Model the fold of this input.
Amino acid sequence: MKIAIIPYDIAWGDKDENLMSIGEKLRRVDTDTDIVVLPEMFTTGVLNDPVMVANLAETNQERTMMALSRLASFFNFAICGSFLATTSGNYYNRAFFVEPSGEVTYYDKKHLFSVGGEDALFSAGAKQSEIIRYRGWNISLAVCYDLRFPVWNRNVDNRYDIKIFVANWPSSRSYAWQHLLIARAIENQSYVVGANRVGGDDSGTYCIEDSMCIDYLGKIISKKSADNILYSVADYEKLTAFRRKFPVWKDADEFSLD
Done:
């Protein structure tokens, strides 16, 4: 499974500019790529203005998701990220996984960043990510602050093989981000993808070094291309062999989120 991460500088609140920028960047992605991962809120940035949120939020059937479906079909790879969504008058930080076939899986961010006031504007999701079965792999989604909560991300009975975190995580907290990504990979015996933005906004600055793919041993395996796209290749046979050889998942404590 070849995975590409595109960490780019999101134009603040400018959906037109961001969609155009992503379209151009996708054209540079290697043609044998299986999944492209974009940052959290890739068309707007993480907004804290209620008027902007109301004006820019979209349903699943509007422009952003329609454009992504066309792009996934055209390039023949899945596209993952999150966008500013609305359903029944509520606003969500909604992750998506768009397959070339047109099938789409959504996940609404559960843990809202109350320190930054996200909980004042957005509604929290209530369910863990559905398991996405794609090209022989099981994939699970999460968004930014979700990373800090290991129980929410627990890989019970190896439900998933790849966990994808999309984020706007500032470099002032890089140490926590990088080490939590590694911890999630090791404790869940899975590949972990962390897709962050670059540039800056009102929350701080962001660096390309905070986007990475980590294997089930906790090793960073992504490599940066000349176009600042980070590529990695996940090996399913090696993953399953390690799980058989070192089956710590069998000794995990039973628990329930109910």
Notes: The CA atoms of residues 57 and 85 lie 5 Å apart. The domain at 2-251 is CATH 3.60.110.10 (Nitrilase/N-carbamoyl-D-aminoacid amidohydrolase). DSSP finds six helices and 14 strands in the chain. The chain has a mean pLDDT of 97.
